[in-house]
Structures are given as structure tokens and as C-alpha cells.
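FORM 7B: Structural annotation worksheet

SECTION A. Query
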Amino acid sequence: IAGCDMFLVPGHASQEYLRTLGSAPDDIVVAPNAVDNDWFQTQADSVRSNASGFREKLKLPDSYLLFVGRLVREKGTFDLLEAYGKLEESVRSKVGLVFAGDGRSKTELQREAQRISPGTIVFAGFTHREDLAALYALAEALILPTHTDPWGLVVNEAMACRLPIVVTHVAGCAADLVKDGWNGFVVPARDTGKLKDAIDSLVENSEL
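SECTION B. Predicted structure
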């Protein structure tokens, strides 16, 4: 750090981290992480015009919460499964949960998911970019309950598809992209109770 003249960071969290290490504010340049917003928005609008066709193609519930990422513990996948299981039975009967991605914890997650009833839990596996836009477009919200994440580009993608977000405070993107109570909710990492409450707020209040 002491030997560097300038620093390039993606957002507020990494900027503050460098400051704690003694970097001068004038030596830090922010270049925000980004995705092709126009592409995701256009794809999402197209999918919504043929929602039933895409639901059938991807075998999706009529209403669902979405996780996109590696299926590993550090992404908070088991926290999400536990929070979903804590929802009222009447809510789980109406709203499913979709995991898009793959990872070493997939088999264990699937085994744990079988214990939750009622409720529809779908493991969509690795998803190509075009189908990923469809998953975003038809979801109620993106949930990223990560324990650690330098950024979280899936949040950018989901927001471009006009989704509300539930994210933990440790995600690098949280400080820059998610305003708690306005375009989503920011919750403590590993707190399944707060995660469940945030999800409840979204699924029980359609105006949000």
C-alpha cells in the first residue's frame, strides 16, 4: 500500500477500507462496477411480454424469490433456505424460492430443501446470460445474503431488470446501490431473523 501512488476501487466500501490502511483520500479513484443495464432491461421487458412461455421453459413457480451465485455457505445460501423456511406456511404456499447457480453445497442444499413443506424450491443450475435475464424478470426480488463479497454484480443485473434487492451489509455493492427501505433492504450477515423479516415485508406488501 505504501509503495503505491494511486488506487482504483469499485465503490464506497473498498474506498473506506483503503482509508483505514492509511491511504490519502486524494489518492483513491472510484470506477464503479457496472453491467450492461440497457441489455438487461430490454431482455427483461421482452420476457415479461411472454411470461407464461418463459415460466414453462425454465420450470418456474408463478411467484418466487431469486438467488443467483455460487451455491456455497459463504454466499449465505443456507441462511436464505432457513429464512424461507421461517415464513408463514400461507406465504410459502404462494411464493417459491429459486437458486440459480452451482457449487459444492448444492447437494446438501437440496437435501435441506426437502425438509421445507409447504413451499416450492427450484434449483435451476448454471444459467446462461439470456435465461438469467428471464429469471430476474419474473422474480419478486433478488436475495443476496452473502457473508463476504467484494461487490456482487448480480445486484446490478437484478436492478437493471427492475427488481427490489435484499442484501447483507458486507456485500461491497450495498453502500453504493441499495438504499435500505427505498429500493430494497440491507440486513446483517448471518441474521436469518432479519433476513426473514425483510423478505416478509416484500412478499406481504405488493406496493413495495
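SECTION C. Observations
The first helix runs from residue 12 to 20. Strands lie at 7-9, 28-30, 64-68, 96-100, 121-125, 141-144, 165-168, 184-187.

SECTION D. Sign-off
Analyst initials: ____
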